[in-house]
Backbone:
């Protein structure tokens, strides 16, 4: 009976949900069957239903694969830096922007900072290769004015991961502020007025009203982002790395790409993919458990 | 908040629709093969009634053939034309009753990947061109392509047979597995990719130096170029793909000290060894490390693609490149067009302390091969199309050069369904000889083949323009630089050829098990190590450590496997 009532009142929303649901079904649930490849020795002459099972052989192979451990550490290092920065920067920026009084200025800045999100890394990376060049790049020209030796941002192994993180932040932070803006605008203005009457200054208002107000969203996004711990951004690194920085720039995705797409070892590539998913699943579950324990927050 | 959320939602939906849209083409093509098969069944009865094999027989009714094309982004088409509808597709339908249907096309480098996916997902076009031996061996091993042995005997035109056998059956042997001819290979070794030295003439004259006789002289010239404008200029080109980039890699200098990177070469005891880990390679790396330290090569070479290096050449930052035959066409003709800059071409020179014979490493034949999908009802179509292409492009008596090969504006040959098209082996070399003779003696009786006619016409136009005080067109200059005289690209190739200066990897078309697993890792190691030593982030003595690492990571096993194969072949 309950069900029929839902249907009557909400059917239009379910229809609106349908395309997204189908997409998820086809592109996210459909391929799960393919994970069987991780436990098979892939022979391309046979159909995918008729492959030889090899147990955990592929996993043994990847842990002994030269370059795997290095790629794993690079991935963790870059991904953790990205997660942290993507966590802090958008929150800070959206709180600061929220304090800007002039509405039109706020709007302009908002639009400006999320524009880069819509550009592809193929384009952005070639722009960065130019502006970060040690001999002709504008960045090093400025450093030179300040008396600093030119830095080879994309060619120095020690610097490369930080360049990757910084450029990624530049590209994405604006877009990620959108959700925080949404949360900020849902805070009841009465609270601010009440605080003002009690004599609270700006900093106090931020600390006691704004931040607690958006805390649920912060916890939610923080928790969800932990699932990307082994995702350091394929498109970006693939377009920016070069033989000089393989030692610190080669990540799991680029390794998987070379094994899977270039070398056609689909079984090995699938095994690496599955390994990543398992680690992500563990992390998401743990952090979700923590969030519900500590912050008493539940998503589901 | 609601509005913002709705906006965000709309954005996400819009984005997913865009990405969803990308796959539509793929889905459509999934259903297509069945349709063709049905139609084929319809027509197959007709062919069975027609017993004698006719290399040029017209199908009636016409036969549908699905094909795939490695598109060249630089190709221009006449108004309204495309790969789907070109002079080739129209003529093949009209003259041969072959209806070509383009299954998919992708740009250059992605072709190999797309073909791999087509193989893995079992959605092969009816006829296709493969680009490497791995694909070929896999398809043949899995019995997914047609055995062409008998069809070749019955349907190949005499000219096709003649051209294919010009290298003594070498390339045919690469396409033969277990006594069966499984594909039509590209014929012969591609000699023209060996390196030559290109020097910018105006800067060279300005420097007042003598013509180079050793590699050191070339570096001196590079030094002089650089010192004219040390802030802006570099001496020599080098790009990201340090070992295999026809525009600007280090292969030329490697050959100048007897190193042959990425090739399996016979050593003094008759065993095959891998060129990249031999002591000569250390010397070549050392030379580049010194050049790098001196500032003669761009310190940022490791992030530069060939296209960016081409820009350095055309914008007057670099005046020397050690590269393949094609430089006059790209990028130098652009500079000729804009500023009229001339370049001189020299054969590769040895380092002064190199005592061995100077040999030039050719590209290793990669496995360009035309094959037919098993299950396709008219496998002989492959041979018929090639017969037709040869007839229109390479046959001295029947070629319609302006229509099918190239005219002033368009290169039609590259849009052919099967490309490259067979022609006389090393035809560019012969063209050089005959064009030079015809121009010098003012006697057109030397000009026979279709290609010779076109190139002779352009070189002649070049001289006519020069003699009448006009500026030649870029494509006339290009033909002149490629084909006229001993100092042209192909003149130098002929010099190499006459003096037997070529060397090719002994390992062609074969991959050992360890190799197919480790090649990628080892090549990554190679690139990283070589770049590190050139830029000085590792000392030159790291070379020995790198060689040891190469052996430990599987190189030693590969060497063993390769020699096992080599000895079994002897």
Residues:
């Amino acid at each position: 009976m309950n069900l029929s009532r839902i249907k009557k009142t909400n059917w239009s929303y379910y229809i609106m949900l349908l395309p997204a649901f189908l997409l998820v079904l086809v592109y996210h649930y459909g391929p799960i069957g393919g994970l069987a490849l991780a436990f098979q020795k892939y022979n391309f002459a046979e159909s995918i239903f008729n492959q030889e099972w090899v147990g955990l052989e592929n996993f043994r192979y990847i842990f002994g694969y030269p370059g795997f451990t290095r790629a794993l550490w690079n991935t963790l290092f870059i991904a953790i830096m990205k997660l942290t920065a993507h966590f802090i920067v958008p929150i800070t920026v959206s709180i600061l922007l929220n304090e800007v009084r002039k509405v039109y200025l706020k709007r302009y800045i908002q639009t400006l900072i999320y524009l880069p999100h819509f550009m592809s890394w193929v384009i952005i990376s070639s722009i960065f290769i130019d502006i970060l060049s040690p001999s002709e790049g504008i960045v090093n020209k400025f450093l030179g004015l300040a008396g600093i030796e030119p830095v080879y941002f994309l060619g120095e192994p020690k610097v490369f991961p930080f360049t990757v993180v910084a450029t990624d932040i530049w590209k994405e932070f604006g877009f990620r502020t959108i959700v925080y803006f949404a949360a900020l605008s849902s805070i009841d203005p009465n609270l601010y007025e009440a605080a003002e009457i009690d004599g609270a200054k700006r900093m106090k208002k931020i600390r006691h009203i704004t931040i607690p107000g958006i805390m649920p969203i912060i916890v939610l996004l923080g928790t969800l982002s932990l699932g990307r711990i082994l995702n350091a951004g394929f498109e970006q690194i693939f377009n920016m790395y070069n033989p000089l920085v393989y030692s610190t720039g080669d990540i799991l995705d680029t390794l998987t790409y070379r094994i899977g797409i270039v070398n056609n070892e689909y079984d090995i590539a699938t095994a690496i993919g599955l390994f990543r998913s398992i680690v992500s699943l563990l992390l998401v579950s743990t952090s979700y458990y923590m969030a519900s324990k500590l912050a008493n927050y539940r998503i589901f | 908040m609601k509005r913002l959320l709705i906006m965000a939602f709309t954005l996400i939906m819009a984005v997913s629709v865009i990405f969803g849209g990308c796959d539509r083409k793929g889905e459509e093509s999934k259903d297509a093969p069945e349709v063709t098969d049905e139609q084929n069944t319809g027509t197959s009865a007709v062919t069975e009634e027609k017993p004698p094999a006719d290399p040029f027989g017209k199908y009636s009714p016409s036969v549908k053939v699905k094909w795939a094309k490695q598109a060249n982004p630089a190709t221009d088409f006449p108004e309204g034309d495309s790969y789907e509808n070109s002079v080739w597709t129209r003529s093949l339908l009209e003259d041969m009753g072959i209806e070509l249907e383009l299954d998919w096309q992708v740009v250059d480098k992605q072709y190999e990947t797309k073909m791999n996916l087509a193989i893995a997902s079992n959605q092969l076009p009816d006829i296709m061109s493969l680009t490497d031996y791995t694909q070929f061996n896999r398809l043949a091993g899995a019995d997914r392509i047609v055995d062409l042995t008998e069809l070749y005997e019955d349907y190949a035109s005499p000219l096709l047979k003649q051209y294919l056998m010009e290298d003594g059956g070498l390339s045919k042997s690469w396409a033969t597995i277990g006594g069966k001819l499984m594909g039509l290979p590209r014929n012969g070794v591609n000699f023209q990719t060996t390196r030559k030295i290109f020097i910018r003439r105006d800067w060279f004259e300005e420097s007042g130096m003598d013509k180079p006789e050793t590699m050191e002289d070339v570096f001196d010239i590079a030094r002089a170029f650089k010192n004219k404008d040390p802030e802006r200029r570099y001496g020599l080109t080098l790009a990201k793909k340090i070992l295999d980039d026809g525009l600007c890699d280090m292969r030329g200098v490697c050959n100048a000290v007897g190193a042959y990177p990425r090739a399996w070469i016979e050593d003094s005891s008759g065993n095959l060894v891998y060129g990249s880990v031999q002591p000569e390679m250390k010397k070549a790396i050392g030379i580049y490390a010194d050049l790098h330290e001196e500032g003669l090569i761009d310190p940022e070479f490791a992030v530069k693609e060939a296209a960016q290096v081409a820009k350095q050449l055309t914008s007057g930052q670099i005046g020397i490149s050690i590269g393949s035959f094609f430089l006059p066409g790209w990028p130098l003709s652009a500079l000729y067009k804009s500023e009229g800059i001339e370049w001189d071409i020299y054969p590769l020179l040895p380092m002064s302390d190199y005592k061995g014979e100077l040999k030039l490493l050719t590209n290793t034949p990669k496995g360009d091969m035309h094959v037919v999908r098993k299950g396709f009802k008219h496998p002989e179509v492959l041979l018929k199309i090639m017969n037709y292409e040869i007839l229109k492009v390479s046959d001295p008596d029947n070629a319609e050069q302006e229509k099918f090969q190239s005219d002033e504006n368009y290169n039609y040959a590259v849009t052919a369904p099967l490309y490259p098209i067979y022609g006389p082996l090393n035809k560019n070399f012969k063209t050089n000889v005959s064009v030079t003779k015809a121009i010098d003696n003012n006697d057109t009786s030397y000009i026979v083949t279709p290609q010779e006619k076109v190139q002779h016409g352009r070189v002649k136009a070049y001289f006519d323009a020069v003699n009448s005080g006009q500026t030649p067109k870029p494509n006339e200059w290009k033909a002149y630089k490629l084909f006229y005289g001993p100092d042209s690209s192909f003149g130098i190739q002929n010099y190499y050829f006459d003096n037997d200066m070529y060397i090719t990897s002994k390992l062609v078309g074969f991959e050992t098990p360890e190799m197919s697993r480790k090649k990628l890792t080892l090549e990554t190691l190679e690139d990283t190590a070589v770049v590190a030593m050139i830029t000085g982030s590792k000392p030159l003595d790291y070379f020995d450590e790198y060689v040891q690492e190469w052996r430990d990571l599987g190189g030693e096993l590969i060497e063993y496997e390769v020699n096992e194969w080599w000895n079994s072949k002897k």
Chain B touches chain A through 40 residues (CB under 8 Å).
